[in-house]
Queue: 2 jobs
Job 1
Amino acid sequence: MPAHDDVKTRKAAFLMAFGETARARRTALGLTQRQLDARMGYRGKFSGGVERGTRNLTLDNLYLLAAALETDPYDLLKGTQQPPPA
Amino acid sequence: MPAHDDVKTRKAAFLMAFGETARARRTALGLTQRQLDARMGYRGKFSGGVERGTRNLTLDNLYLLAAALETDPYDLLKGTQQPPPA
């Protein structure tokens, strides 16, 4: 495993990249964050944190988010690959 | 979004498929669950739940698990796609 700080930085970059992919998918569907949250059964304040890369969601919610975005978790993680650590 | 029960069943199948993918990757690396847990900084009882599909891990831990398995989260989710809901 790479050095601790490197993993921390790469993990934050992973969450940011995931957020950007989720945002792109949401806007492609023409949904607002509030509409997406409602699809997942949330009354707001869910997808905002995901898209900012600040919400550390669980696999359960990753699955629900993907379903609400009419896709699957594998597809949502497509934009998150990183070059292997040095 | 598909009916509630259908999402619940599909979500459980997703966690099971993810667990199987993680197990296959671990055994391909010749690691025990204890060795994998240690790579992630856990003293056991982490990867067992993941592989049984009973641990609802966060994206942070998904990232750490992938790094410990010398891959990335996108690759680990490869075997989890499902046919679209009926």
Note: The mean pLDDT of chain A is 89.
Job 2
Amino acid sequence: MSITIKDVARVANVSPSTVSRVISNNSRISEETKKRVKKAMKQLGYHPNFQARSLVVKSTETVGIVMPFSASTVLQDPFFPEVIRGISVKAKENRYGMYLSTGGSEDEIFEEVTRVVQGRRVDGLILLYSRTDDKVMKYLLDVGFPFTVIGRPYVGAERITFVDNDNIYITKQVTDYLIQLGHSKIAFVGIDMDFVLSIDRIEGYKQALHEAGIEFREDYIIQKSYLKGEKSAITAFLTSPDAPTALVVTDDFLALELFSHLEALNIRIPEDISIISFNNYFMAEHSKPLLTSVDIDIFQLGYEAANCLIEKIKNPESLPKRITIPAKMIERKSCSSFL
Amino acid sequence: MSITIKDVARVANVSPSTVSRVISNNSRISEETKKRVKKAMKQLGYHPNFQARSLVVKSTETVGIVMPFSASTVLQDPFFPEVIRGISVKAKENRYGMYLSTGGSEDEIFEEVTRVVQGRRVDGLILLYSRTDDKVMKYLLDVGFPFTVIGRPYVGAERITFVDNDNIYITKQVTDYLIQLGHSKIAFVGIDMDFVLSIDRIEGYKQALHEAGIEFREDYIIQKSYLKGEKSAITAFLTSPDAPTALVVTDDFLALELFSHLEALNIRIPEDISIISFNNYFMAEHSKPLLTSVDIDIFQLGYEAANCLIEKIKNPESLPKRITIPAKMIERKSCSSFL
């Protein structure tokens, strides 16, 4: 019941092999014939068998998306649906599909990526993160498979096309904002030094402190893993005599968890402690108090990464480049001056 | 530099055609030989070329996910990442990949689905929604392509495997809860009658009213499209002398938008108006007041839909079935008694 090349050939009044050549975009076929064959294909609702055709034109018309760790935890973070949303719009503009690559650990991700690449399941890959020690990135560079990265590659950034915010600059701005409100005991919460993102943000934070003549304190850097551990530890930190009066938090999700925690401790926001965060998720506009947050334009990060990847797929000789997506602090009600 | 069938053949000490037969799972090859070839493949890190192999074994080891309308709007709703999360866990257990199908309109979705099916880009499809008039579902039934649905198919439910909550029952429970709090002016907000979900929920809502002897009022059914329109219309509805004292809202997202709207009108929740909603998103635990919501177990909806689909792919003769995922009201602070 499905339509074959022979049906198309009959309607277009050409040989089946001519139809095949049109499908594989053979340059020896005249424009006139191409037009006629394509018209027949459309008329009959014929779609070339995707897998057979992929072998010929070596294209899957699919972009692969590589997520950090398992999709099962990652998709709980609103960053990922939003970045996929950006990718999807660009993919759709170019009639590309999307393949989601998942793995439960670094090793599983690596194994899955090699399988996807060697099996040519996709035409190229977008890495949604950048780690300091990234096997996947090294592998993709080695085999010369098209890819782009969201985030700054830790090594080889000159040879890799990537899309990122200016994380040093925006974090410096955010810290400056708290300093200008009179804070000097400012902690940075939710760090994961395996990711280049954290390294860059810490750098911006340090620059702001340095310029203001405030000493950097290691004990004011709170790891993400620490927050996920014993509640008593974070309680001790927030209630110690030397507790910070302001927090820079790596994402709104964590910030809202801190909101709940602080409420239970009867510590008021922003009267007792100021909080500023990143990502500007929907809930930042619906929390009490409303959360001051940095809009990093997640959608655009995804859109541009897909744009660069498709460009690279279509023209493998295109040069590596860095695209910077502007980030902007959205001032709401979670920070106040410290007198 | 990539490893070929010839390399595997050499290491396993068999002919290349034997390796091909092992890859295509030919039953004429002895278990002993299969084992030896597989060991050599593993040792060399050989992955059969996916597209070439698909032609032989007719499998892509990929499940396709069909979203309603464009991914660009849909992914803003936390339902979709969470349901994909459920699918991803099951897919991963079976070493399946995921392909996201997107379309900007009903026609575009239909076109994309036919392309995916005819091109055999995936082994089966999961529809994340059920419409009253669904061309896609009819098409998939016609061509006999494996698929499962999240939601109740409007027609042909006996011939289709689907996963759903008992929407009539849970909505009746929710409405009963408000009636027991003393409310009789209860509106249902966020309806879209194109989706079977809305039809079932309205049915449960009506049953509760009917049992309690409360008359059903058409003007208490507020369409989703209405909420997206003029703010003045919804303001008029909420402030009229005949305004409802309680709202059942189709999802937490809408509910929180109503929270903001009501706050601007100085209508207090729950003192002046009670609100109960569906989906139990993360933000329901962080709103003020905390939002009473129905946990429909979105993750499990996705997980079971993937489970049924993979079962169907592996055994095309498996019988159509309905799986019901339990839903549960999570009582928080957004409802109070009406005296």
Note: Residues 274 and 335 of chain A are 4 Å apart (CA to CA).
